[in-house]
Each structure stands twice: as C-alpha cells, then as structure tokens.
Design goal:
There is one protein chain. About 35% of the residues lie in helices and about 15% in strands. The relative contact order is 0.21. The chain is built from 14 helices and 13 strands. The strands form two sheets. Strands 1, 2, 6, 7, 8, 9, 10, 11, 12 and 13 form a ten-stranded mixed sheet that branches. The chain is of the alpha/beta class and about 400 residues long. It has a single domain, classed as 3-Layer(aba) Sandwich (Alkaline Phosphatase, subunit A), CATH 3.40.720. Keywords: Signal. InterPro entries: DUF1501 (IPR010869), TAT_signal (IPR006311). Pfam families: DUF1501 (PF07394).
Amino acid sequence: MDTATRRTFLLRSGVVAATALAAGGSGFTLSQILETAGEAPPESSARILVLITLYGGNDGLNTVIPFGDKAYRAARPELSYEADQILKLDKTTGLNPKMTGLHKLYGQQKLAIVRGVGYPKPDRSHFRSMDIWQTGQPTEPGTTGWLGRWLDSAGGDPRLAVSFEPVLPPLLAGATSAGAAVGGNGLRLPKGVSLKTISALAKTSPGESPLMARAAGCFADAVNVEQMMREVKEAAEKAENGPDAATGTGGNTALEQQLELVAQCVEAKVATRAFSVSLGGFDTHADEKRLQEVLLGQLDRAVSNFVNRMSRSEQGRKVVVAIYSEFGRRVKANASDGTDHGTASNVFLIGAGVTGGLYGDPPSLTKLDQGDLKYTTDFRDVYATLLDRVLQADPAQMLFGWKGRLKSLH
C-alpha cells in the first residue's frame, strides 16, 4: 500500500492525527519511557521542562487581572471581577479567584508571570496561531517544532521529548526526528475497521522508500495505542487510591492524569528532558466567567499539586513548568458574556529555578490594535530562555538566530 493511500485512510478514519503522520511521531508505552530510569543527566544544572498548552485561547485579562486599571471594568462590566474578589499580586494586579494554589506559589516566589506575550502581526485563527507558537516561526509557516529542532540537536532519541497528549503535537516534530507520543485517549477505529486491518497496513513492503516506510510505521504506532491506554488508566487508578491521593496528585482530570505520569517519570529519573501536556476548552465565546473558572480551577489544582510534589525530591526540584495559550481574548466583552479571539496574553513559569514576580510591561487597555492588546514581550524571548537555562542548548540554533532573553530563571 502506498503512502498516499495510507495517509488518506488515516485522515478519513481519524485513527491518528495528520500532524503525527507528517512528523513521523513514534508511539511509545509508559514502560518504554520508564526503561530509561536512572539515565537522567547527573549534573545539578540539568533541568527538566514541562510545557502545558492551554488550547482554545485563554482570556489573559481574567486570568492575570489588571483590576487597578479603570479601562478593565469599563470594557467588560459584566465579565470583570471586583477588586475584593481577586487574589492580589500587588496594588493593581491579581489572579483569578480560582487560582489559589498558584497564588500561594507566587507568594513563595516560585511563579513568574510574563505579561503581554505575543508576536508580530498576530493571527486570530486557532490553527495558524497555535502553529506559530509551536513552530516558533511567526513570519512564515514552519515545518518543524521548536522543541523538535532541539531534539534533532540532542541526538534524536524520541524518549528525550515525551508527549502525554492524545497525539504528538507539532512542537515535538523535528526535521530528522520526533518526540515520543504516549497517548491516553485510546484508539477509535471507524466502523468495519479492526486492529487486524491496521496491523496489515503497518507492514512495509520490499523496496519501499523511507517515506513510505515512515507512513507504515505510523500504523504500527496506532496498533500500540490500546496498550498505552491501559497503562495510563492503571497509573491514574494507582494515583487515586495510593498514598498520594489525599494530596490531590491523583488523576481526576485529563491534565492531572498527564501530570501524574510526568511525576512518575521525573521521580524515576528517566532520560526525558522535555514533557508536553495540555488542557483544552478555553474558546470562551459565551458564558465565559463560569466556564473559565472551571478550567482555571482544574489548571490550578493540577499544577500546584504537581509543583508541590516535585518540591519534595531532588530530581523534582529540577523541573520548570511553562504554561501558555495560542492567544488571549479581546479586551471588550461580546454580547454573549464572553470574549472573542484576541492577541497577547500571559505566560506562566513555575519551579524552584524560577525567580518569581511580574515580568514584561502590561499591555495598554486603551491603546489597542483594532480592539486587541499590543504585545510587549516576544514569545521567542520565552523560548530562548527555556532553551538556554533549562535545556542547556543554544537558542540561536533552534530559533533562527534569535537573541532575546527573559530574566525570570536563575
């Protein structure tokens, strides 16, 4: 079977994402990642990155709230928060009331909030903007992810960069290698298609080109998804019923499950240096206040419990968490008590290696770009800092010569 036929089958059946096929992403089980236990770099300066993607475009103004700016309430009178509801960071800025755990971490100087993060000529399409964020290329379409390019430079072992998301995200796809995908949503086959059929499609043929063999490998990966699913569920059940259940580290939500697996890997000192996890649902065009509070509550609980757990071990204290979304929302509320697609927003950096505080100039709420915030910090400054300080790589090599940096990591 040729590559085109395989690709058509995958796209029509939804067995695996087109991105994973294009990247040649490799399917791994949790046990295969844990086989590298004890292989983490021994040097104390070697850190571990946990990247959390908030899909849908999180409203940054109701996450990190500029309550001291009169323009905030004027732009969204029903959607805004009163000053006495907000978890204060200083005299003018605070966190959403559902973010009590992260507020505590801020008080411990472990949470850095970078405001006004964005890129030139912003795109308000979910797909294009997420593509820009994950490839790190705002001026032209990219074909590799910024962490995928790091993986290429680090030797290409997929287990160095692991995703616990349903499919391999573009950010882990390099030019010559791709990260390991350990999915948790199971294999959904179309009617009339069996695992036996998928297994047959996975077989390579004599004389096949490398590209055809690569496509066949994606089918082989799909066959392993059921085993991955069992392992993820078993890990979540152990977390819920085990000794850490009382502290909230068990898997009650998708993000908690993903971070539970990350925690297991970190504590086992696996070779993985970068983990990718995610939480979706932030496209809040209507009834935003209630919906966002639910999502931010999930994020807060999952992340604060994970960070607190990591603080209890030497290996865990090497972890740096970065949280971002593909864009923020418009300053003015819409007629449905929600907000529409916007531009600049916040990036959170958390961990023992982070110097907590507010970073970046807060965007003006009155000097807007067609109703949207003007970015004040280029997102490549964030990536360059993470590559340099966490992954100990040359950012210029992965970010096409970019030289900007933040001062939030030490």
